Amino acid sequence: MSPERELDRTEEIAREQAYVSTVYDKLDAERKTAQRRLTETLRLTGGTPQARTERDVATTLYSDRLAQLGSVEQGLVFGRLDFTPDSEEETAYIGRLGLFDEDDDYRPLLIDWRAPVARPFYLATAASPEGVRRRRHIRSLSRKVTGFDDEILDLHAADQGQDLGLAGEAALLAALERKRTGEMSDIVATIQAEQDRIIRSGLNGVMVVQGGPGTGKTAVALHRAAYLLYTFRQQLTTRGVLVVGPNSTFLRYIGQVLPSLGETGVLLSTVGQLYPGVEATGVDTREAAEVKGRLVMAEVLANAVKDRQRVPEPVLEIEYERDILRLDRKTASDARARARRSRRPHNQARRVFRSELLDALTRQAARKLGAELLDPRDIEDMREELSADRGVAAALDSLWPELTPEGLLDDLFADRERLRSAAGKLLSEADRAHLESGRDAKWTPADVPLLDELAELIGEDDTEARAEEARREREDRAYAEGVLDILEQDEEIIDEELLRVSDVLDAELFAERQERRSQLTAAQRAALDRTWTFGHVIIDEAQELSAMDWRLLMRRTPNRSMTLVGDVAQTGAPGGARSWGEVLSPYVEDRWRLEELTVNYRTPAEIMAVAARVLAEVNPELEAPVSVRETGVAPWLKRLSPNEMLAELPSLVDKELSAVDGGTVAVLSPAERIADVRAALADVDERVSVLTVETAKGLEFDSVVVLSPDEVVAESPRGLNDLYVALTRATQRLGVVQTGDLVPALQPLG
Ligand SMILES: Nc1ncnc2c1ncn2[C@@H]1O[C@H](COP(=O)(O)OP(=O)(O)OP(=O)(O)O)[C@@H](O)[C@H]1O
């Protein structure tokens, strides 16, 4: 760069610094105001219940605002748009949130990246500039502007990224070259046009985002959550947004992205965490997980519940008051048919069944005593006595017991006969054997959708609990009103005191109601409530979900406002998706829209060439995404015996660590060898992760070493898909250690 141009740049940086500093000053002022208001609100005490509610709302509001203002510190201002002279727009600065100058007629100082005005920052191209003359990416470190990259959007200007339609190519490449830390970063400054369209797509309906590895599906999904919360805040804050990921390692990896965008009201969860009260820490065998995920399990479970609704074969004798009552098959069958016809879940229909049988037993007992001698009141008393009798209760329970989802599922998998009866022809003997032998003492993630299905089938008999709650509320109110009456009649009590007492009484009732509604955010409440339904659900790595997982998630999204992101070419789960249509048709038929991402931002071209050969073996019709960059570093392959591999791993990993100079390294191993590999790398640097391919899904590392690829392929029916996933985790370097046969697709490496 010539000295003059260098000087110009320095001056330009100083000008940008002055503006950016003004924006930070405004941020500081906003923080101070929010803090002051919060402190003032917290200081207030007493007042009417109405005032207290208002105070609670204000406290939440100011705390949220403070958290939001605190989260946008880094890279607050990252873009600037200059428009053509004939455009009506003025120069606009784009950043992580919107800030306005109240003293200057609310002139925007900074425009939130999600606002419609910011859109040209992501969409404008030389061919379609949208009134933009220049797009500038501002680089900064803490509050200091360190540089900028300009793009002049006129047709004569060179547009290097034209082939792939990249916006802000220099800033994008700088972001992609950055060393990975083990936590995903946001991409607000460099969102690309094809991604922007998906992020800002409307709230309603089911949208599927299909894209190969590294195309930014996860990034897009999270930015979409932030966009939807910004644009449809009213609608979404009450019901909340759920983001589902494949496992907790993945959730930790993405956990910081939304907070860094100032959004904390999103529940991140795996399917296995969506059944409150159950921690699914067990592990299924691959085969057991596959069987548990099949759609027929819904029928098997429905049968299992029906099997617990029995009738006597042929007569049940019940001892009652030194006599014997007889319950025959026909009476019980009629009662069962009536209870089932009520279409209520098992525990609620149980009431109908019991009531029918108590009627029958009362008639029988009355006949024995000579029914003509009894009046209706005697008969009613007799029914109550029968209902309270332990022997009778036990007999009725033996026919139609109260069930819990956990109890029933445990019994089903532990009892060969029960399972055989419920499965009928739906499961083969081998399938059933997988369910029995694959049992873990702990619940597994694949059990969770089964428990959820059972919770629907079994239901909860909350008649008494609800009646009790209503009674308590009535009593409290009556008591409060009674006391107030007394106080009003007592002339000795002065008005002020009367007011105070009435406040306390009402406040007590109010507090009780509040306790139930609670001050938690929608996301927090949703996490505690199995029957919660969300305003929008985003599912990442959606191709991995089983049919039973889908049933659970669809129950949580009755409005079908969903974003599903995934790649059917990366499906590793044996029960995972082969096509999106197949997965969705039971729920929305063909009413879903497909968006595709085509550019790979993660994996350099050299590595992608290797991965693409594996993909061609999976299915020659599938196309690998196009890499956005090259590194000039060829992937390496080493042939070693298994023992040599374990011995050499520490030094191989050390070499990779120094090659990525402060970046991250992953060693991806077949599941069979993972324990040995972990032991061999026990003392290694914390930037090294040792993982199976399954747990590496969705993650990325600067360098990846794949061990024994032939075993990865052999380990599962979708082994080639797994190998494809493994090879595409790298952002810079790839190595392969071969211990057995060479996988044909990797031949050119050797
Ligand atoms: N527009 C962008 N600007 C900067 N970085 C980006 C952009 N899009 C994607 N990336 C980066 O590319 C990498 C891959 O993105 P992401 O993990 O979202 O891809 P993915 O499609 O979910 O991949 P996979 O299916 O392999 O898990 C991440 O590091 C992400 O930050």
TrEMBL record:
GO terms for molecular function: 3'-5' DNA helicase activity; ATP binding; DNA binding; hydrolase activity. It comes from the Bacteria. Keywords: ATP-binding, Helicase, Hydrolase, Nucleotide-binding. Gene3D superfamilies: P-loop containing nucleotide triphosphate hydrolases (3.40.50.300). GO terms for cellular component: cytosol. One of its GO terms (biological process) is recombinational repair. ATP binds at G211, G212, P213, G214, T215, G216, K217, T218. Residues 190-604 form the UvrD-like helicase ATP-binding domain. The keyword Zinc does not apply. This is DNA helicase IV. It comes from Amycolatopsis xylanica. The lineage of its organism: Bacteria, Bacillati, Actinomycetota, Actinomycetes, Pseudonocardiales.
